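User: I'm writing a short report section on ligand binding and want a predicted complex to refer to. Could you take this sequence and zinc ion and write out the structure as tokens? A short remark afterwards would be nice.
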Amino acid sequence: MRRGSKDAILVVMNRRRFVQSASLAAGAAVTAGAVQAASGAAQSRASLRVNGTRVNTHIKELAAFGKNPQGGVSRVAYSEADRQGREYTMGLMRAAQLTVSVDVAGNIWGRRPGSDAALKPIVFGSHIDSVPEGGNYDGDVGVLGSIEVAQSLAEAGATTRHSLEVVVWQNEEGGLWGSHAVTGPVTAQELAQMAWSGKSIRDGIAFLGGDPSKLDSVRRRQGDIAGYLELHIEQGGTLDREKVAIGIVEGIVGIARWRVTVGGFANHAGTTEMAGRRDALLASARLIEAVNRIVTSRPGRQVGTVGRIQAFPGAANVIPGRVEFSIEIRDLDASNIDLLGTQIREEATRIGKLNDTTFSFIVDSAPHKPALSHPALRAHIAAAARQLGLTAKVMPSGAGHDAQNAALIGPMAMIFVPSVGGISHSPREFTTPEDVVSGTNVLLHTLLAFDAAGAPR
Ligand SMILES: [Zn+2]
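Assistant: Sure. The structure tokens for the complex follow:
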């Protein structure tokens, strides 16, 4: 809620800082140079723009670390390329006048003080690690866009009420590890897991300058932050196909996953008559078809997938006596996920009776609950896009992001920019420079509106 915020001097403009640097002039963007008095602060704030040339140059420069022959990067967490990319990024943060530190979990933080020390910080950022043979935009756009926002504010001499924290989460692609450590307890078993780099999570954290034995000290709890914003590429084709500039993320879908074991009876494929066979693979096939039918029988955007299957003993001349497969369901609505899960189990029972097979469902450890973005922050994004003359649409995120962990400790929102052709996790991943600039400006103005209005309740 805004309470007279227009009158308050929320952003203190320092006129002496309005000397345009050469890079700023080259980058097209700003300026709010006409500010003469505090009453003009709101208007000058509205005309503030990021340096588009600079943020796109930074994307190109970061792409050098872990560069692969296909034109993307292989900058997996805890690799030498990751370390170098982080060094480069920390340099940009310092140039943006952020105070840089690495926490015990290996996350990088760049802090900028606000004018009201009583307010909790606004956190914004993303990640720079990639999948093996990844692209140059996933995560990078959010990190470099966030740093660009900080630098633009510094150059404009704009002080926010809330302190600002730009975060570079470590090892997003390998399982949201950095944000997990900040928002939830990390078990010894988890720390022993192996990352793509060949290092365990524990060794990886130490490699980045963290201290895996002190992870408890990095924990933040509900209410410790004013909120969290993340700019990210869509990684799907919706915005590109519909020619929409900005995605306002409604939430990050929840995932439920089961390991299903079907029990039948293995027997000779030549001598066992068709009638009376307890074929576990046939029963599995029926349920796989049913998963698709049940998931598509309801209106909504839920998705259901059987992605892995194995039949035992797995010989051409033996009726399968046992089959194991996975079922995964994703949706923004947790109750819908539960309902679909129940319907699938009921169908399994029915199918089992047809050929005397049994189904057992084990809930997989990977799933997580849906994380909804905060309506007040979504409204700030919508207003920022409108103010900038950009089209926008509200949409779910089918992919996981650090924002889903951040949502555990405060209000969260995400801004998507288009991925050309919907391609991601590929060297061919591409977001146009114009869309990068649009997204970064939306981040800037969402942040300013958030700062003015205060943390939503
Ligand atoms: Zn990402």
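A remark for your report: The chain is about 35% helix and 20% strand. Residues 334-355 form the longest helix (22 residues).
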